[in-house]
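Input/output pair, single chain:
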Amino acid sequence: MNAETSAACCEGGSCTAPRATRRADRPWMWHLGVILAIAAWFAIYRQLPAVSEWLTAQLPVDRASHAGEAIAFFLYDTPKVLMLLTLIVFVMGVVRSFFSPEKTRALLSGKREGVGNVLAAFLGILTPFCSCSAVPLFVGFVSAGVPLGVTFSFLIAAPMVNEVAVFLLWGLVGAKVALIYLSFGLLIAILAGWVIGRFHLEGWLQDWVRNIRTGAAALELPDEKLSMLDRYRLGLEAVKEIVGKVWMWIIAGITLGAVIHGYVPEETMARLMGADAWWSVPAAVLVGIPMYSGASGMIPVVEALLGKGAALGTVLAFMMSVIALSAPEMLILKKVLTWRLIAVFIAVVASGILAVGFLFNAIF
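Output:
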């Protein structure tokens, strides 16, 4: 059948989709493909230690030397982190397909502070937003009548308590550190948003944001129902977009982690970032603020620092400050906040991060 005949047939309503299209859209093929891909992922992941050691042994370096330690760390962590990131981003891309900005605004609109702060912080973990989307989100929330403090709880939790980072931490350094990061990141987002809300600083918004008519935004939810195939596709798109953007930061973080792991003596790290150095926590926060990295890019550095004896509280404070208080994010927020409100935001969040650092250095 040629193209003209096919087109005429379709106009009559009697033709069906081409065989290739029907085959590609068969749900069972997608389900089977996802199952097989995950099985292959686990099979390859289990072989990474042996493969990395074999590759290191082929190089003209002594495995026990500083260079050997650094190279082995790099060759093992690079595929491990990228594989973990790919799987987690795909799964969370599927999960995130159940959320949308409209649904998030609808859930938070009209919520009282307190309950709203808790709900906003948990939604910040689950929804696919980061600092680059802070301005449109902020405006959308304000126009939907979401209280300022509740909005801040969401905007703090979204980049800082990153679900990808939680699972990466779990896989690389253990459940304890991952759960501590999750719990106290949420606590900081909730309390910081609540405190900012108590100050009633709506007058410190930029004029054009303050003049937005509260409640003017439409909160209609889309009626379109996504199929599981659509959700798989969104997961794959998330992998392409997120991994494609951050892989260079991942490599940079692993390289830095490899240098720390191979060349920095444990006694030096304990002296600079140990629990006994009281000044290490505020120093870590000050060093972290001007830096810029996603949560996934920080994980290899965290792994190396902890492996060299750095204190847990200091490392968490450093990681949280890089993610939640980075200078680029503050410049983005300047479009909607005055410098006075940004200063309050930094002070409140930094106080929470410092409290986490000192608390865990005292406990562990």
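The longest helix spans residues 228-263. DSSP finds 18 helices and no strands in the chain.
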